[in-house]
Amino acid sequence: MAQPRVLVTGGAGFIGGHVVLAALAQGYRVRTTVRSLDREGAVRASLAGVGLTAADHLEFAAADLTRDDGWPAALDGIDYVIHVASPVMPGHVEDEQELLVPARDGALRVLRAARDAGVPRVVLTSAFHAVAWGHPHDDHVFTEADWTVLDGPGTDAYGRSKTLAERAAWDFAAAAGGELELTTLLPVAVLGPLVNSSVSGASRVIRQLLAGQLPGLLNLYFPVVDVRDVAAAHVTAMTAPGAAGQRILLGSDPALSMAEIAGLLRARLGQAAARVPAESVPDETVRAGAATSPALRSAAADLGYARRFSTEKARRVLGWNPRPSADAVIAAGQSILDRGLAGS
Q: What is the predicted pLDDT for the residue at 36?
């Protein structure tokens, strides 16, 4: 019997690269999309650096989220699709359409191609940003039933892009998906071993701490999950019977404060973390700076607030048991140091 083939979009990226590795490790044949086949060599080299072994079971297809051409060929002979690729620009964005359009239209483009190719299920990477922003800062425990309030306080362009893209995907599946099953996965802040020298998302905070680029520790909280556990969940969700038609939150322990993250880095990475600050920045200083700084404006909205969440569904439906969030923090820090990305 032929090995099932999986299309992973965005295999050159952080989460996508780990999904490729996880699928290969479980015996799948993998095809991943890149905007240009000129990137194949570099992507293979990056994946080899983080454990790629079944290289002969990995192939590449050229396809772009903003164009229709390329997707029918990318889907040819594919049994499952994991759609990871999406622009990531947390914080202030000058032109939100740069995020919103490729996120939403790209998801729809992949879903249409998967439907037309007869693929039974698509697993789409959404985000906790599509769940827990724009709500009151109270003790509410967020679940898959919650959606980010698009015009709510603290909701940024990235949160809107993930929310609109996921809602569009569900609307498509209901109205035009035919027999296609959709599962969306919603990870909190994803950390862990980098697959290349690109540092994005929560990893940027780790790099800034290690490089001594922050004047002090802000009163912020980060729910964290390891990228390797996120990747494993994606592969499991392709075939788990109970995952069809479900949103599934992915997270590890309760949110870590920036002070706790800094303390972990100093305790576990020793002298390499000597520049990690230990002093706190007063909330009133951050709020004052928010008047002129878009980055601080985003931070000021979340001062002192630790979002709570439930991962009961992931554990029940996927049999998922993530590693401690501290392990993800240290893996990210060590990876940044090993690649020389924290400066000298």
A: 92
